[in-house]
Structure formats: structure tokens, C-alpha cells
Amino acid sequence: MTEEVADRPDGPPPELRFRRRVGFRSALRDLWRARELIRSLTERQLRARYKQAALGLAWAVITPLVYMVVFTLFFSRVADVDTGGAPYALFSYIALLPWTFFSTGVSQAALSLVSNMSLLNKVSCPREVFPLSSVAGAGIDTAIATLVLGVLFIVTGYAPRATSYWVPVLVVIGVVFTTAVSLVMAVLTVYLRDLRHVLPIFLQVGLFATPVAYGIEVVPADLRGLYSALNPIAPVIDGLRRCVLEGQAPRTGLVVIGAVSSLVQLIAGYRLFKRLETGIADVA
Amino acid sequence: MSPRGTVAAHHLWKRFRPDRGRSLLRDEIERLRTHGPRKSWTWALRDVDFEIAPGGSFAFVGSNGSGKSTLLKILTQVMYPYAGSIEAVGRVGALIEVASGIHPDLTGRENCYLYGSLLGLHRGRVAAQFDEIVAFAELEDAIDRQVKYYSSGMKMRLGFGVAAFLEPDVLLVDEVLAVGDATFQQRCLDRMRQVVAQGTTLVYVSHDLATVEAMCSNALWLKKGVVQEMGSSADVLTGYRRWIEEGAETSSSMDGRIRVMKASVSGVDGQAVTTGEPACIEVHLQAPEPCAGTLQLGISQGPASPLFLLKHAVELEGADLAVRCDVATLPFAGGRYYLWLGVFGEQGQDITPWQPAAHFQIVGQPLDEAPVGIVRLAPLQIEADWSIQER
Fold it and tell me: Does residue B85 share a domain with residue B16?
């Protein structure tokens, strides 16, 4: 069967080139239509995860709890951390919540497209539903882990302050930033499969580059703005500590920088995702 | 905008990198460092153009690697073309792979809903059809079991049930029926026929040409990504079968310990072969060394599986052998047929491998048409007298 197929030009005429135009608004509209799917995928992910694991839902709590214990036992003794009067356990646990959310969200999102290739190859849907459902799953884990924070307050006899009403603002910034990184990592891992080995190292370094075990005061004051722009989790953590533990409003400057940076990264990340999305099935 | 259920492709082009198995950061860094060239591309689809009206039934045929599945993936909008455009109006229900992309850790029930939401359906819609799907897939006892404990047939049944019952506007079926047993295959064909009758557009891909003939009124033959022929499925399949047979002729080695020098099928007194009339098969055999075996003759419509077989012992001791086999009647409908033959030893080992040796035309009436969705296995022309009386 080596005979030549019918005469055809070597390629299509350039005016026929397929250009996929994804408008921001139409993409969001498609995403809204797929909300049921995000819910199903999140549910599926949580079910599949907790059905297999022996300790079930407890896993959501164990990661931040173990880090908290380790930090409390070792880090707080070696380095003299200024907790602003709060017990160190609370000081680190309240920071571990947004950090664990970020790190589980991103690491699961990074694999979300690669591990769902069989689905991606079969049904068309907005591809971002996969990383988004990973982020949603991490959110539910974090909500469960937050219950432990309540227990810690009771155990330490330290009450959350009235300024806690700032929390929702900080949560939004954390979610926006996590989503941005998740989208980018998910789509890049499809094209560069070995990124999945790089990511855990990156996240491990991130844990120490983020003021989780220590306060943001460690960073020189004039660098804090840049630092918050690069890592919006930092002003979120600092804000949480200030409003929940210390009874002060978050540092407005840093929070604004973090919010703007997260939003810019989300928009850029979503655009990149939509752009690279077109070729996902080709490399599957 | 075209009505719901329209499927069309306009000048579709698609290309791939042949070694798309690897995509690593490591390779990219290496490429940047050495300024190596980017890998070259090969075309998977070249200028494919067709249009299917709503409610039509259309088949893609072609050998492996001809681009059928790529075309289907582009139609589902899972993949995007390099050039050209497609149109698939309405909800597309696709059944592309047997594994169905259904999640193994979830139960059949959960997978049903998950697949429903992938198709953009709300839970209520899936729930309304749920019992029907389960009954169709015969999974009443297994629906709450994890899908990883399903047999491949069960997975296929679940996948087909979900895709076919959730009332898509376009149903794409890609070579999945092969896993089901015969009864279920027929039920799938029945279901596909019902779905088409309700106005759904069917796009069917299969190597089982008999089912293609039964299901689809139109067909498209892809060869190396190029549309070779498009039209009514009877015409396209005739051409495609002929091509398969010719490919088999050139690819199979005529070499065996017994060589076939000449083979022919003719009618009475060397005339054309006619339906229902006697025919004569003549084979000329030659062997360098003495050798004995059983000569098997078969008539087929193209592929290697014959419609019937005839066998006779042959023994070659130096001299050539002229074998003549008179057949009392060849009850086949008019069309093109192929003579396949082979010589086999006592344990069934190849002396001359099974190969097409000649093709011939049978002159006669075409067959009565089968109803849609009914697979006719052989083109037998049976004489019949009808009598119908009013009582």
C-alpha cells in the first residue's frame, strides 16, 4: 500500500488556517454552563480520594497538623519568633491553612489534566474545569482543616479577635492566586511532563520562602511590597494573623498589592491556559 | 446557523508530530542549547470536506491510521484542526473509546451522572433516563459497583447506554461494538436506528463493513487523511472492499511450497458467472518438490473471510496440477467477488498461505434492501415464491 495518494498540495492555503478565537466573555459563559461539571468532578475527586485512604477525611487535617507540631517543637525554639502575643501553635496553624490550600490545590491541579487525558480525549468541555475542581477540592479540605483551628482556640484558651471580619477579603485573594498558579501549572504539565517532578521541590522551597513558620517582619520593610507582589500568599497570611490573632486591620498596602498581583496573574494565567488548551488533545 | 444535528467539515487539515509520545522540559532545554531543529510534522487529515444533514447516518471507513479517529475527535471538538473549520450543531454524544474515559474508582451510577454532566445535562435529565440506561446496559446488579471491577463488555454497555440514551443531537460511535456479544451488538444497532429515527445524526466508524452497510445510508472513505470516495454507502463500500482485496493481493507473498500459477472462476462454457447458474473454478498449481496437502477454496466479497469454503486433497509429485472444481450453483447476488485459496498440511500448517487469487464479476439482480440496522451477513440470492391471500 505504498502508492501515492491523490495529488494534494503540501499544506492548506494560509487563508484557511484555523484560528480559535476565545473571547473572555464567551469563555466565562461556557465555564458558567459547566458549573455542574465542576461540581461532579470535585465530588468525584473527593470521593475517589477518601474512599481509598484508610484515614478518610482525616487526611485533610493531618498535613497542616503535622507541620504545626513540627514547627512548634523545633522551629519556635531555634529561632525566636515574634508571634505578637499569640501561642506559636496558633500562629503557625493559621498560616498553614492558606499555605496548605495553595500547595495541595496547585499540586493536584498540575496533574488534573494529565491524569484525565482519557476524558479530555473524548468529551469537549472547557478544560479549566479540571484544575478548577482540584482547587475546589483543596478548598473543601481546607474548610475541614479549619475546624481544627477552632479546637486550637479552645485548647489554648486564646480567643479570635473582633477584627476577624477581614477574613473573607483575604480568602478571596488566596483563592484567586491559587487558581492562577493552578491553571498555569495544569496546562504546562501537559506539554512538559517532567514539570511534575519539579513542582514538589518548588512547593517545598515555597513553604520556607513564605512567612508560615515566621512572621513577615523578617522581610526588610522596603522589600515587603515586592515580596507581596511575587507571593500574594504572604500578605494573606500576615493579614490573617493580624486580624484574627492580634486584633488589628491587615496592612492595607500589602493587601492591595497582593490583591492586584493575584488578579493580574489570574487573568494572564487564564489567557495562557485558553491559548494552550487548543493543543492539549494533540499531545495527549 | 444550520439546524441542530448538522455536522459539516470545510477543508479540514490536521497535522501531528510523529513522535508525540514525549513532551518533556528536558527535551526543550536540550533543543534550546543545541539549536536543534523542531521535529517535523506529518499530515493526518488533508482537505477533508463533507456535510451531513440532521438525521443523516454517515460512516467513515478506512484502514488503520487513515485519520478516522482524528476526524471524530475534531468533530467532538476535543481536538482542533490546523486549517479549515467544522460545524457540529447541538449536543454531541460521543462514544470514542471502549474504556469510555469513565472513572474506574466510581460506581456505575456515579459515572452515569458524571458523563451526563460532561454532556452538559442536569442531574434531573439524567435521573429521568437512568432506569432506561441501566435496563438497556443490563447492569441492574452491578450499577452500584466500582467500574474498575466491570468487564470490558460491561464498561462498553454502560458507555453506549449513557451516550445513546441521553438524547444527543449528534451521536458519534467509534468501533466500540466489537467488545459486546452478538445479542448486545444487535441491540446497539437497534438503538442506533431508533436514535436516527428520532432525528439524531449518526456518525459511525467501524471496520465491520456489514454493520456499516446496515446502519448508514452514506459513507466516506478516508485514505491517508484524504477523502478517497464519498457517496452512498453501497458505492463507497464496493470501492473500499476492492481496495482491501487489491492490498491483500500485493502484500501477501505468492510464495509457498506450492505455487499458484493461475486461478480463475468462470461460468458455463467460459461465459460470465451468473447468479444461480453453475460455475467452474480452475486452479493451476506447481511445486518444485513433491508435496501433499489440502487445497481450500473460498469465495469472498473482498476481505479474507469467505462466504463458503470447498476443500479437496492435492498431491504434487513433480508435474504441475490443473485442478478444476465445478460448482452446481453460485447463489450470490450480482457484484464483484474474490477467489481466495490456500494449501494446508495435515496439522493445518501453511503450505501455501491463504491469499486472494482472482476476482470475478457475477451477473445478476441486486439484493432486496435490508431494513436499516439489520446486518445481512452474506449476499445470498434465494429463489422464492410469494402468495398472499385475503382471508
Answer: yes
Q: Residue B24: which domain range?
A: 7-245
CA distances from A231 to A138, B137, B143, B158 (A): 19, 52, 47, 46
Same domain, B200 and B348: no
Q: Domain check: are B205 and B284 in the same one?
A: no
Residue B77 lies in a domain: yes
Cβ-in-10-Å burial (0-12, 13-18, 19+) of B89 comes to middle
Please indicate, yes or no, whether the overall pTM of this predicted structure exceeds 0.80.
no
Check A124 against B100: CB less than 8 A apart.
no
Q: Please, are residues B200 and B168 in contact by the beta-carbon 8 Å criterion?
A: yes
Cα angle, residue B214 at apex, residues B208 and B218 outer, rounded to 5° = 95
Complex confidence, ipTM: 0.75
Tell me how far apart the alpha carbons of residues B310 and B299 are, in angstroms, rounded to a whole number: 9
Residue A183 is predicted with a pLDDT of: 96
Please indicate, yes or no, whether residues B307 and B182 belong to a single structural domain of this protein.
no
| B119–A122 C-beta distance less than 8 A | no
CB contact B25 to A (< 8 Å): yes
User: Checking phi first, is residue A196 left (phi over 0); if not, alpha (psi -120 to 50) or beta?
Assistant: alpha
Nearest CA in chain A to B222: A5
* DSSP assignment string, B154-184: HHHHHHHHHHHHS--SEEEEES-GGGS-HHH
Residues B73/B74/B75/B81 CA torsion (nearest 10 deg): -170
Q: Select the residue of B25, B77, B123 nearest A192 (Cβ to Cβ).
A: B25
* Amino acid identity, position A266: L
Has residue A120 got a pLDDT over 70?
A: yes
**Tens digits of residue pLDDT in A29-86:** 888 888 888 888 888 788 777 766 666 677 788 888 898 898 888 877 777 777 778 8
